[in-house]
Task: structure prediction
Amino acid sequence: MSGIIVVFPKLEDAQSIKHLLVRNGHSNVVCCTSGAKAINMADNLGEGIVISGYRLPDMLYREIRENLGSHFEMLLITSLSRESLDEEPGIAMLEMPLKVRELLNSVEMMDTNIYERLNKKKRKPGMRSPEEQQIINEAKKVLMEMNQMTENEAHRYIQKSAMDSGRNMVDTASMILSIMYKE
Result:
């Protein structure tokens, strides 16, 4: 679960929303009354959701959004109608009076978006450097020559050995090379 920053000009309003979120299972919720403080908190959190009013003492919600990283979702709560505001990418909006279920559903959806985005990044395999790829290619070549394997068989052998030993392919290929060159 990511962090949630609730920023409103009146601390009581921010605390009311915080208490509502905490009662419904969100534990990492902080409050503040200025855009600068919200941006500072966002820098410390790294990722999460900012729930904001339209106008704060030091800036508008847009300025907060412009200073947030890409790991943040923003939920604007305002008394202005959707029609009077321009549609802005990356900003969801709820109109006042606030309905508890809409707020909770919006926060849950945003939390899910952040979770999926972070997991998607984790699933991307890292790119190997040319030196690392060279080590793997050399190990495949040695396996192909000494054990009469095809390139695919050699690759699968290194891959399976790496998985079985809990190492990465580069370390396994280096180990294969050191063993083969000892003989």
Summary: The radius of gyration is 26 Å. The longest strand covers residues 72-78. The beta strands are 3-7, 29-32, 48-53, 72-78, 91-95. Residues 34 and 61 are 10 Å apart (CA to CA).
